[in-house]
Amino acid sequence: xxxxxxxxxxxxxxxAFQLPAHIAGTVAALLGIASLVFPWxxxxxxxxxxxxxxxxxxxxxxxxxxxxxxxxxxxxPLVVRKPGKLRDAVAWNTGAKFGGIGLFVVGLVAVLAIGLxxxxxxxxxxxxxxxxxxxxxxxxxGLVLDPSPAPSMGKFKTPRVVQILAIALGLGAVLMAAAxxxxxxxxxxxxxxxxxxxxxxxxxxxxxxxxxxxxxxxDNKQVLVxxxxxxxxxxxxxxxxxxxxxxxxxxxxxxxxxALGLNIVVGLVGLLDLGYIAFLGAGAFTAAxxxxxxxxxxxxxxxxxxxxxxxxxVASILGLIIGxxxxxxxxxxxxxxxxxxxxxxxxxxNNLDGTDGPxxxxxSNGINNVPELSLLGFNxxxxxxxxGVEIGRFANYxxxxxxxxAVIMVVFVNLNRSRIGRGWVAIREDELxxxxxxxxxxxxxxxxxxxxxxxxxxxxxVKAHHDVSVTPxxxxxxxxxxxxxxxxxxxxxxxxxxxxxxxxxxxxPEKLRFFSDYRLLLFGLLLVFMMRFRPxxxxxxxxxxxxxxxxxxxxAEEVEEDLINYxxxxxPDALVKEELK
Amino acid sequence: MTAVAATPEASAASAPSVLLDAKNVxxxxxxxxxxxxxxMEVKSGEIIGLIGPNGAxxxxxxxxxxxxxxxxxxxxxxxxxxxxxxxxxxxxAGMARTFQNIRLFHNMTALENVMxxxxxxxxxxxxxxVFRLPRHRREEREATERSLELLAFVGLEKQADTLSRNxxxxxxRRLEIARALATDPKLLLLDEPxxxxxxxxxREAEDLIFRIRDLGLAVLVIEHDMRFIFNLCxxxxxxxxxxxxxxxxxxxVQNDQRVIEAYIGQPAVMDEGNAxx
Amino acid sequence: MDLFWQQLINGLxxxxxxxxxxxxxxxxxxxVQLINFAHGEIFxxxxxxxxxxxxxxxxxxxxxxxxxxxxxxxxMILGGMIASVAVALLTERLAYRPLRxxxxxxxxxxxxxxxxxxxxxxxxxxxxxxxxxxSKRAIPFPTITGISGEAWHLGNVTIQLSSVFTIGALAICxxxxxxxxxxxxxxxxxxxxxxxxxxxxxMGINVDRVIMSAFAVxxxxxxxxxxxxxxxxGNIDFRMGFLAGLKAFTAAVLGGIGxxxxxxxxxxxxxVVESMATTFIPGQFGSPAWKDVxxxxxxxxxxxxxxxxxxxxxxxxRA
Lengths: 581, 277, 319
What we know:
By secondary structure, chain A is mostly helical.
């Protein structure tokens, strides 16, 4: 918002243009709808084949939905002139503003993607150009519009049934969107869809609909969490046994679970752990060694439950060895010592090959042929048929990872909302004052650090079986930086943020092959830009946001209001407060 | 509002016993002797004042008591036990403090700030928290109750959900006191509790300190406001250049020629709010 | 005994390399309390800058030793310095300065980002500069007649001239640095700022300039180290800054971070420990494959037993 304000003309001068802007915006959106009558390109390779006149492709249908939505946003204030319940419930103008800008961005991406995929802008047909023109017009109209006052929708009293229905519909939409995104093949199509989804989400947030959804979610937390897991559980059924997509989805889950563990250390306590991937590796190597693989150094093959616990314990012992000396000194040193630890780990795993050290890991060859997991007689490697859908190997691991992720989520959320979580916030805010108030700062830091390592060890144990082979070069510093990027992008201290961040960062290189060589370059840049412009991440933890914007008084007021509205969703336990009232 | 129950230990002691016994405390930084051979006795239920010109070593002495610094020489006996030189242990032993320049957790609400003070009196561990075991639930409930009580005690019951950074200055001072009280102290150390307050707020602070004393706590106050100190304190210590110049009941110290000289000798006499180096 | 002297010489020259880089960490940390993770990459940029200068000079090969040592080598060092100082100042201005009042985590994460970015940038785009070789694999460093491949023999001890160059460069740089810090206005302003930035500002010191000179000094020394690295190992690659940077940081902590003399001593000690470890630790763990591990174990031991470092007395508690 501030960025937009800084670039637009003084507001008073625009007052006279509000009506024309509404009209122009509506026309622009209608123009966008009309573009579907024409082909966007005569080449069939662009996007998901947008060459047919009057027969929109899936992506074009998405665009149609967005255009209709934006048209409504622009048009309603034209029709409903008087303030009233309908007029005040939704921030029509703010929504239209962002919708207009979004329509432009989406249009631009569409034309550029067509141009790039077909080898030149000459291959863009009238439909494509109309989309671009509609976008430019909508952009101008959006920039001219005055933002509307805060919407009242979030404060509506909604019947429980409607709320739950809204949650179900919302999650259903997310599920379908995820399945659809995975099914897209072309890089251009995927990028277009990603931008489209981002624009749609941002517009919804700005209209205040999200505020209402957030209220629904806050009122029905258990339902929400349950429904989210049901949605994730159902996901494999939407894939019709596509192993490739399920493999990606499972990797996303492994990555998310690890990033969430890292977020306890970085997001909740504010310690920079740059060797986190090594703890994942420690878990993976331990599990592989105990897996009964012919390459393993021991023949002992305990049940998986035991293996998982040993893996976590090994990782957390390493965490204690690294953390105890370092955390006594200063948080800054932790960053570099964990970086060094990451290197020690990699080198050590490489050296335990029988030449430079005892034969434990087979050096750079690693431990191969890790057998499939078998839990209570259920073989994770074998496909099963469930409800008429073939559930393959990756879907099995997907479900297992879902359980691991749930465990890590529970640990994250419940620790955050306890005396321990309050202690962590106090340490972040003013470590000296926390110590002077009797908080065991060193103990709490160690707990987070070693606990985070334990969770990484857990995830590593599953990863070893999922990957079939465990080699040292999977667990190098750049992977730690990659994890950190997911946390920073998504939002330090939030669960949802990390899930979003991890999903985006893992999907992008999978879907955009051309992009893979520039992957790390862009992630490095991403870290720098996020810290400069949005250090709290895409989905911000409110307290974190305040810490990063210490001077922002307005933000402080807003957050406080939210705290009272939602009965403070972090500390102290909302239930306890309820009982007291 | 409900009165806050006095800590059992403090109320049980019928005859005033020596709570804090600091003997010959010396703190040396390189060539600078900030605190020199200071001895002090605080009995339970007493309000003791600590005055002195800027740079006299008052805050340094506080830091020696509360474990921020380890005194170079001397001993501190608190409640019959030698004090461990660790801020956290000192709090556990029953001594809590406020800071000269308010050090609240600014992005936490008033209630959460006070609940951090309860940390050292609760025991539930990570497992209790993760599995929401009974101990966690009970302690969380008790901590919330007790913290709300304390907020009411200092007059902030309506601001429980306000972020502490959004509180007015005077309320922040009171919140800091509530946070210190949440640690169940036997002795409360206040570092310039009225700095920057107007006369009205100062009177309220005075009243608050009397009420804290009535709970059975001992209070040790650093102040520059002489009227405040002599109204409030049973005994006053005057510290000059790291040494105790005079100590005794308020009237005695107030009329002591040396104290007056020590202050007049310093041009910035009673300008409050200056940094106490 | 010969082996001991040989390893001592090897260790000292390796340590001199670490020391040259470590100064950059320590100077910046002393003033802004920032661990500049990207400093290792500044060192790498310096080496590539020196290499590029050599190419610009027409890739001179068959030179007399006088022309090589007094013409080409100084030009390469200068070119490397220009590259590394420019990059260091850019990162300071664009990335670190806006975050000076932000929570400590923010500049640390930024530093990681810059480090990854610079590595990848050199890997992907150095080869695109006309005349430069592909940088995705190691690039052979130019040979300097009179230094590369030459050695002195003292009894059974061999001293590579590239080692002599590194140790000599460290000696000269240390002297210059001492003069700069103690005898120039900017240097004294640096000391003042490191002790109390806000008072320094009140005294009319331009703190921004002081911070920039700290970055610049560190980067210039890192460029010298870059050239020394090239001469010592005969090639450079985009990854070289990572491990060297880590070792140099270890050296800075070993000597006492924030203390310039400490960085020099710490570097030399670390170098000697590393080369002695590969010789005198018996069995498999004495193999060269473990030497990096021993260096980091030393780092952790220092943090346990003497967190203020060998020469440090204060400053640690400020962190």
